[in-house]
Write a structure and sequence with these properties.
The chain is an all-alpha fold. The protein has one domain. Helix content is 41%, strand content 2%. It has six helices and two strands; from the N terminus they run αααααβαβ. A two-stranded antiparallel sheet has the order 1-2. α2 packs across α4 and α2 packs across α6. The N and C termini lie far apart (39 Å).
Length: 190
């Protein structure tokens, strides 16, 4: 939302739980946009939503899967910062941990890490890398739905209803390579 002088700010969050719910909301928003491209879009619109999806995906897999964290980091491994009055039982918390997704998509020693294609300016960004956003989302979906079920109702800024996406298009071949034209994977002959 614009404010005076051309500066902008995101919606205010009332709790640490709202921060994670915001990440979920923005992940869904970016995915919905990728799956519903508009005819007037330029390639840059698609790149913007892909990078938005990857940013929020990375933040969420870090929250649900990175066991070593810094002071001030929100993590499922410190649930008392999310659930101030009643922390869920151990089995519920364990069902929301996914270190395997963190390992698969963003550890430092992983050459395919999201951060190497998005977070940092690296020579690796010239290499073609396709992101299967449909599979990535489905790997994370059960965890985020479980997480949401354990918190009070959140009013998403984007207006998306939990998990609802318009259209059935898949974008399995989206790439963050900065030296090529983005391919949406919509034409099976390519």
């Amino acid at each position: 939302m614009p404010t005076t002088g051309g500066s902008y700010c995101r919606r205010e969050k009332e709790s640490d739980g709202d921060i994670v719910l915001y990440e979920i909301d923005m992940l869904r928003f970016a995915r919905e946009r990728l799956l519903s491209p508009q005819p007037w879009w330029e390639e840059r619109d698609e790149w913007l939503y892909l990078e938005d999806f990857l940013l929020h995906y990375r933040n969420l897999i870090e929250f649900f899967g990175k066991e070593k964290y810094g002071k001030g980091d929100l993590t499922i491994f410190q649930p008392e910062s999310i659930w101030l009055d009643r922390v869920p039982d151990k089995a519920s918390l364990d069902s929301m941990t996914r270190p395997d997704l963190w390992e698969k998509y963003d550890t430092r020693d992983n050459e395919e890490a999201i951060s190497k294609y998005l977070h940092h300016c690296t020579t690796q960004r010239t290499e073609e890398k396709a992101w299967d956003v449909t599979t990535m989302y489905e790997e994370l979906r059960p965890i985020i739905e479980n997480f949401e079920s354990l918190l009070p109702e959140y009013k998403p800024a984007t207006g998306l209803i939990s998990g609802r996406v318009v259209g059935q298009t898949t974008l399995d071949g989206i790439s963050t390579a900065s030296t090529r034209t983005i391919e949406l994977g919509l034409n099976p002959e390519k």
